[in-house]
Amino acid sequence: MVDPLEGRLIRLPLRQGAFSADAVFEDMLTGWKQQQLARNFTAGTIRGRESLVRRFVDHTGHFPWDWTVGDADEFFAHERSILNLAFATIRAYQTHLKVFCDFLTDPVYEWDRVCVQGFGRSPAQIITEFNRARHAQNNEQAPTKRPFARAELQGFFDLADLEVERVLASGRKGAVAAYRDATVFKTAYAWGLRANEVTHLQTVDFSRNRRAPQFGEFGVLQVRYGKAQRGSPPKRRSVLTVFDWSPDVLDTWIRSGLPWLAPAVSEIFPTANGLPVPKSNLHRRFRDYIDELGYAPGLDIHSLRRSYVTHLFEHFGFDHTFVQRQVGHEHASTTSLYTSVSSDYQTSELNRVLEDMIEKAVRPKEERE
């Protein structure tokens, strides 16, 4: 049999007289890969889950048929206290282990019979309702995470532009890369994009908006690498251009900067070899700029998307539904997490109470009595 992800030969799990612990464990992982492929999970997701299972085995020193609930508790206590992993990361890791144990304990796959026959023990579910982290609220991001203030954002963009001039003046290489990254940051803000969305943009993703001809060829953006839901391909959405300066930024880059990197590729933000710019490079440059500016903690690349939502609400007065569709949130409550602006109900109730208080304050004393 051939491994579906790596193309290597594997052994069938139910072979007579061959119960090497390492071999059985590898067969378990291969069978799990096949099951996940059948459920439409991506290769990246599958590899990430396999990596966690292997790390769990290395940490505990036990194979799955010897795992206990105590092993899981000790592992995640280590991840929380020593590695200081985020709540959402812990919950994701627990889910990975749970679905692996679900696979092993499902009678359809017969791993219980294999393990009892070979090792005298069968796998058990080690992630239960008693030791699993609960998803208690929608917003689990760190409280320090925040959008840019408008003045901060302008200062950040100014420094990104200045970096290009500094590299040119020094005679060092990297001016085009600095120009590319500055344009990436501006594009992420101008269309409210996640890091993965902006790094995969291609020239064919932009088109005219006949109802807004002033934006030229950059009136509508078709996002093709949106955040995927479980077992589904990347989610698509259309984003309308709203800032009058953004088409000029992209058009100038495509005409003046992109040909110096990889003129024959369709990616808008490639490396010199034509591949999409790695997100790690952007994160590193972003952090360098933030550190140089000395901004307060809580800013990351996703803050550009947070700022887009917040600024459309607070400074430009766009409707909540419009902003929700622009950023591709399925639920309005998700969009509201990005901004401090209250709901229409809260605003109207506040205005009603304030108006009633003012009316009582200015009413003559005898009428109040």
From TrEMBL:
Pfam families: Phage_integrase. The keyword 4Fe-4S does not apply. Gene3D superfamilies: Intergrase catalytic core. Transmembrane segments: none annotated. The keyword Repeat does not apply. It comes from the Bacteria. Residues 152-351 form the Tyr recombinase domain. Keywords: DNA recombination. Signal peptide: none annotated. This is Tyr recombinase domain-containing protein. It comes from Arthrobacter gyeryongensis.
